Amino acid sequence: MITTNNLSKVYGDITVLDSLNLNIKAGDLYCLLGANGAGKTTTINLLLGFIKPTSGSSFINGLAISENPKKTKKHLAYIPENLMLYPNLSAVENLDYFSGIGGNQLNKAQLEGFLEEAGLQTSAFHQRISTFSKGMRQKVGIALALAKDASVLLLDEPTSGLDPKASNEFGLLLQKLRNKGVAILMATHDLFRAKEIATHIGIMKNGQLKQEFVADEISLGDLEHAYLKTMEYKEAVL
Amino acid sequence: MIHSTFIKELKELSRDGRVRISFLIVVLLMAVATWISKSQYTTINEQYQEAETAERHIWEAQGEKNPHSAAHYGTYAFKPKYPLSLVDHGVDKFTGTSIFLEAHKRNEAQFSKAADQTGLARFGDLTPDFVLLFILPLLIVFLGYNAFTKEKEMGTLVLLKSQGTPVGKLIFGKWLGIFTPIFITVALLFIVAGIVLSNLNDFGVFSWTSLGVMFLVYLAYYIIFINLVLFISSKMKKSGISLVLSLGAWILACLAVPKAASNMAESQYPYPTRQEFAASITKDQKSGIDGHDPWNKQAKMLENEVLKQHNVDSLEQLPFNFDAYRMQKGEEHTAEIYFKHYKHLKTQFEQQSKLYRNLAVLSPFLPTRFMSMAVANTDYSTHWDFADAAETYRVDLQAFLNGNFAENSSYGEWSYRADESTWKEMPAFDYDPPELSEILSRNSSNSAILSAWILGSFSLLFFTTKKL
Fold first, then answer.
1. Which InterPro entries does UniProt cross-reference here (chain A) (predicted)?
2. Which bin fits B149, alpha (ψ -120 to 50), beta or left (φ > 0)?
3. CB-based contact (8 Å) between A134 and chain B?
């Protein structure tokens, strides 16, 4: 579960995040939409404990991040926009290493099991990551979250640059995780994918959460309209 | 976590073609350097054995001769080669290999290898110590410069941080990942060197303990370099900058500081020129007794003193040959003068060494180099030790010859001929280098500096790197 209370981050005179309040429950997939500089990545960095908030507080499964940075990381998995792994190691070796440093020693069968569950084809298990596409690397990232048994997953633009098939497969994997009770926060530009997979959608601008929707209660057209209006963009007339 | 990082680093290094090629180059260079050194030194050692035997034979086969003629005829003290000089050539190339021992004069060591070489020698030799002191640290730079920067550049550091990886454990894992292949490579090289050295015939006494100490010295040197390179990598964001800074550290430590130290030592504590040195000795000699000149003021004083001592009126009445006695006194006077002037040189050398030690704060190269040369018996201290031993032998030889002349002839009997068996009575020159314990004791300050470097660099790496 992810909770933020009036979470803010200020750099000098610039407020990059302004009193963000989120409450993402187990099994929820919350998509944060917004243009570049809206505060999406700052939110994720604050939740990861990479940066400290100027004010406000945030919690992972009830644990205050600022007070328990190490403990909260045990519950977290994170997949950045361009997940980079060690190119000279295979998928299994990468998974083994990242699980190992998280204190989770797994045997070969378990590692392969998680990669399979994440949808990576069996023939790629022992191939070096240098030969992997971005979609394949993202699947290893999901396998990492599965292996860690993370209850919270943070995703920063994970589908950017993926082809529609890979993006769809990734969406299905997130659905699977959601069904397992994982609370997911995903920053994205992709309205279509957000509408497809999210339970909740928030639109951010200039560090503020401007609008929130329950995904089932809004159509893609209305979401697009709301987004463009929030961003003060002109709608294309076809 | 440390173990996982260590294994991961080893896998990455072993799969990196550049690393494999670098290791191959280092091992090949070392093999070639050892082979060249072994060939050279086997030849030199054979020449040494041959020359020593021939020279002794010439000395013993002089036949009947006046002892003072034998003193002028002279002999040679040959500087032995020691097994570990194969690993570290030290200053052997420049110091000369033998000293001519004759009456009235202390000679410098001559026949240095450098004197026999052409201008091409300026390019230096491919020797094991060159690989150990210069190339291996360079290999460490190439192994470690991007240890952390590549994680930052690739983005894997973000993933590591999101896993809650403690920085200290990550650093230690990476440290082990670089240290282990270096340790294995260097250990194998030293074991191979040990096997080669222990199988060389007539090559002095090989000691595994000394080789072990030398190995530890180099290991300390590499640990310092690993710490410095990892520290730089941990602080930089770009691999390119980290590489440039690491190479800068290598240049500073291995090239710039030693050369600057040498220049500073020379300018602050200069040796007198050969001409100045010879002129000062001649000046002092004139102020004392001349063994060959019976009309010399001091010789006359000695004459009166001896006559009075023995309560006789003329030199002919003395129970020994006063000519020989006077020459021995002249010899003793000359030896004192040489002792005084060489002591000054030694003081200058010690001052220079002190300056080097002070500058070792700037570079771990200096204490490593000094300790390596000392353990290999190829440093200046060992050379001084050898030169002093040769001088002691020369003084004893002159005393023996003058004694024989004085006891077996009477005043003015220059026609005296010592028996041909006389020469064998003087034992051959035999030089034993300082024991390892003495070498370590002499170099305790270098050991302390090296230890301080290790502690300092570890502290720098682990205590100043809280965040990546």
1. AAA+_ATPase, ABC_transporter-like_ATP-bd, ABC_transporter-like_CS, ABC_Transporter_VariousFunc, P-loop_NTPase
2. alpha
3. no
Residues 6+ apart with CB under 8 A from B438: none
| Minimum distance, in Å, between the CA of residue A103 and any CA atom of chain B | 7
- Residues of chain B with pLDDT below 70 are 111-124, 201-204
With an 8 Å Cβ cutoff, are B1 and A100 in contact?
A: yes
ipTM for this prediction: 0.81
- At A28 the pLDDT is 93
Distance CA B338, CA B197 (A): 38
Instruction: For chain A, give every domain's residue range.
Output: 2-81+151-231
DSSP A116-147: HHTT--GGGTTSBGGG--HHHHHHHHHHHHHH
Nearest-CA residue of chain A relative to B12?
A88
Task: Record the tokens describing residue B448, joined without a space.
Answer: 């302390």
Please list the residues that pair with A23 across neighbouring strands.
Answer: A3
Q: Which pLDDT value is given to residue B287?
A: 82
Domain boundaries, position B114 = 2-463
Q: Do B162 and A70 lie within an 8 Å CB cutoff?
A: no
Question: Is residue B468 a part of any domain in this protein?
Answer: no
Identify the pLDDT of residue B300: 86
Give helix then strand counts, H and E, for chain B: 21, 3
Q: May I ask the CATH class of domain A2-81+151-231?
A: alpha beta
| Angle subtended at Cα B231 by Cα B225 and Cα B237, rounded to the nearest 5 degrees | 130
Residue A235: per-residue pLDDT: 60
Token duo for residue B14? 């072993």
* Cβ-defined contact of B164 to A77 (cutoff 8 Å): no
Number of domains in chain B: 1
